[in-house]
């Protein structure tokens, strides 16, 4: 029997359980590069945190934009070509820290809001929360009650 890995569904669609949208999002994510690595963490019932490993970037090089239900995180390495003398001095035996620009997109569920973003020790943390409006929350209707319209 063939096993299907559903982990792309869980890591790319935050705050909603619309299966069709999750499948579509996971299909897009499979085509994306895996840089930079990230975690999506459930902090509470409706609270989430995205943590991205972005070593070598400063706050000035990172842009976070929310448009409709998509969170865009981009990192631009400034165009600073090392001088010839610098290139000769730097000799890597192993180069595992990537120094390239990136763009990551996360599909957000309905009513998911970005609360804050901070950067510490090469990690970018983006906190999110799903805030359901009162009109969308379930209401208990008592039997025998009447709605009085004024």
Automatic annotation (TrEMBL):
Belongs to the small heat shock protein (HSP20) family. The keyword Nucleus does not apply. The keyword Cell cycle does not apply. Residues 29-146 form the SHSP domain. PANTHER family: PTHR47062, SMALL HEAT SHOCK PROTEIN IBPA. It comes from Opacimonas viscosa. Pfam families: HSP20. This is Hsp20 family protein. PROSITE patterns: SHSP (PS01031).
């Amino acid at each position: 029997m063939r096993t299907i890995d559903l982990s792309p569904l869980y890591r790319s669609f935050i705050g909603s359980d619309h299966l069709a949208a999750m499948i579509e999002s996971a299909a897009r994510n499979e085509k994306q590069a895996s840089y930079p690595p990230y975690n999506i963490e459930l902090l509470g019932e409706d609270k989430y945190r995205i943590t991205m490993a972005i070593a070598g970037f400063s706050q000035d090089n990172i842009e976070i934009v929310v448009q409709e239900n998509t969170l865009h995180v981009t990192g631009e390495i400034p165009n600073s070509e090392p001088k010839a003398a610098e290139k000769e001095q730097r000799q890597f035996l192993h180069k595992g820290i990537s120094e390239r620009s990136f763009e990551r997109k996360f599909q957000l569920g309905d009513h998911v809001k970005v609360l804050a973003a901070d950067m510490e020790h090469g990690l970018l943390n983006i906190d999110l929360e799903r805030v359901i409006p009162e009109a969308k929350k379930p209401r208990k209707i008592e039997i025998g009650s009447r709605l009085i319209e004024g």
